[in-house]
Specification:
151 residues; mainly alpha; 7 helices; globular
Length: 151
Amino acid sequence: MKMFSIYTIIVTFLVYMGVLFTIAYTVDNKNFLNSKALTPYIYALSFAIFCTAWTYYGSVGKAVNTGFLFLSVYLGPTLIIFLWPVILKKMIRVKNIFKITSLADLITVRYEKSRLIGAIVSIGALLGTIPYISIQLKALITSIEILQDKK
């Protein structure tokens, strides 16, 4: 017996994505980042991105295989909480001076605005997202199978 039909899952997914995109669109167009009252909520939502399929499905498997070593996955985000004000201040200064809009721009500034370096960084960033996208798709399929009680 199925727990949820595929149509219920799809409709729920589309409504959820619609809400997320509506929030992102509103925040982007209304310049909410200048609002001190909403800043904690915006940061909380951005940290929630880290707690997606990557950590939900990845951490459990890593904990089973490595024990407490899986906590090292959380070391980076934890350290960045304390270091972020210093890093962000420097990045904003460099961004304003050199009119930087992307990671490729940031790297090429160090190498005399080389187009070749910019292309390599852009391709590297694109290729670097493939494993993340694949684990997201795997998590999506696994979640649908669990919700349909197929496993």
